[in-house]
Amino acid sequence: MASEQGSDNGTAQPNPSKQPVENSLQATQQQMLQMQREMHEMFIHLQAQVDEVSARRNNSGHSHQQSNFQQAQGTIIPRVVRLDFPRYDGTDDPITWIDRAEQFFEFHKTPANEKVALAAYH
Q1: Are 85 and 118 in contact (CB under 8 A)?
Q2: Which of 77, 39, 71 is nearest to 58 (CA)?
Q3: Rounded distance, CA 47 to CA 98, Å?
Q4: Where are the beta strands (DSSP E) in 1-122?
Q5: Measured between alpha carbons, how far is 41 from 45 in angstroms, rounded to an integer?
Q6: CA 49 to CA 74: how far, in whole Å?
Q7: Cα 92 from Cα 86, distance rounded (Å)
Q8: From start to end residue, where is composition biased (Polar residues) (predicted)?
Q9: Is the entire prediction scored with pTM above 0.70?
Q10: Which one of 28, 40, 56, 112 is least enclosed by Cβ atoms within 10 Å?
């Protein structure tokens, strides 16, 4: 006589209550694989667009300083940050103002021969 857990030879039969969970898990795995394939395709498409824009930029004769973009590790990052020159009113520590001015010069890639005139203006 066979038991509920297995046949006469002692092998366990699958638990019917686990079947819906296993089916759901397999469906979720398939969905994740499909999403991974789609994301990979989107990445390839995006990389091709970035390469195309980069090639056009390099062929256009624009220098790095004239561009509104920075290039880092093969990707183009738009510079959308506006950094105003710091004002010094004489009441605060001048070291803080100098540090901010140096950050401004570095960010805008200001040539050394223009720094004093720009600082004096402000």
Answers
A1: yes
A2: 71
A3: 40
A4: 69-72, 75-78
A5: 6
A6: 12
A7: 12
A8: 1-24, 56-73
A9: no
A10: 112
